[in-house]
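>> Question from a student workshop board

For tomorrow's exercise we were told to take the sequence and the ligand below, predict the bound structure, and bring the output to class. My setup keeps failing. Could a helper post the expected result so I can at least see what it should look like? The ligand is iron/sulfur cluster.
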Amino acid sequence: MSISYLTPEFLIERNKSRCIDCKVCVRQCSNLAHQYDEEEQTVISDDSKCVNCHRCVTLCPTKALYIKKHPLEFKGNANWTGNAIREIYKQAETGGVLLTGMGNDRPYPIYWDHILLNASQVTNPSIDPLREPMELKTFLGRKPESVKIKDGKLTEKLPPQLELEVPVMFSAISFGAISLNTCKALAASAENSGIMWNTGEGGLHKDLYKYGKNTIVQVASGRFGVHPEYLQAGAAIEIKIGQGAKPGIGGHLPGEKVGSEVSATRMIPTGTDALSPAPHHDIYSIEDLRQLIYSLKEATNYEKPVSVKIAAVHNVAAICSGIARAGADIIAIDGYRGATGAAPTRIRDNVGIPIEFALASVDSRLRDEGIRNQVSIVCAGSIRNSADIIKAIALGADAVYVASSALIAIGCHMCQKCYTGKCNWGIATQDSNLVKRLNPELAAKRLNNLLHAWSHEIKDMLGGMGINAIESLRGNRLMLRGINLNDRELKILGIKAAGE
Ligand code: SF4
Ligand code: SF4
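>> Workshop helper replied:
Here is what the output should look like for this input. Compare the format with yours to find the bug.
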């Protein structure tokens, strides 16, 4: 066999004066980057196997480990960067498509960081959220044009709505891509926090039916785990047309990840690859989509809102107009930084558009067409903090989906190796030993804390703007200003430049 030209990406440094050869790092590393040398009676490392997940560094009792980017560099070249050369080596050695996990990590502009929020001064005074009520409750679903009230009560039935205590939901991540313990943590935290979690395309494990009122059940092209009881179990149904990390292509869960539990939940044989086709084979037009939306409504007695999730791509505004007219109650738009368990690197990094542009153009188009209230918009694709959330809402979202930030909250260290199934943090894995590393109760508490902290921050920012209800911020772009943006970008975002 010819030698590999690939050199290690990371360098493991072990401080021998601190290391007590306890072998914790040996046991913790699923990539076998640490080994016990019986002859020398000491722990040694293999840099080439390290993925920089920080598991060993975090758990080493004497803090003896450091991991650095490997200092070995190629000759400086602005065109042929080290990464570009390494990728060619990998493909020349394997003949395969490059795979990656999590979201797009290319240095494209992050428009959230070019948008600033307003705050009240002198007139329209700010509100102190510690002393005055502040409403974050959000309802997702079709809103009627008008309502009739008699004796203080509504005289008509409203379309079904999802009720959220905070305008945040856990985005779709399937059981199979992540462990059951991770699903449990997301579901329990959603219940505790009064929000929703989303099954993704992997069906609903029997242990999770009890969280139904906080669950969005997804129907994807593979129809894995979809049956009448599943549709009835959720508070809403989501048709997945696309996702930001891999617009236009299907999904692939390798057979090694399809153990007995995943197989029973997805209704596929154990050990077989779960391949979801790129298109839904019954959807070739907006009319076909309408048929599926109404079939799902019919199957659930018109009691549940139906969401349609798409990737943010060119012409997203026209696509969303069609989806709203097809009868969707909610549209989820996933930007090009949206994460995934596994995606071809080239697709992830080169297909789609930024969620900030997609969101602003969809909201504007639906308003211009007078149909904005027929549908709620959920913004997804790398929402990192409470400021991103509040900017998204001011740009036109009703709520946001978060996935990467939720996984980071429970221990993900963004090594981007989810597709290997060897997640050392017990998140993106089905390995029974690794799965045990994530305690679902503790993980749910961390998620609750994150949502609690974000709620406080959102209230602070709202109060600062003199607004006491999150609903009043929706699409209120006067509260936003752009920095370091050109005229075209400002126009698409529908905001003024800072100082204007
Ligand atoms: S976990 Fe730390 S102390 Fe234990 S063997 Fe590894 S480096 Fe040494
Ligand atoms: S989920 Fe696990 S494998 Fe995926 S990026 Fe996070 S730590 Fe790495």
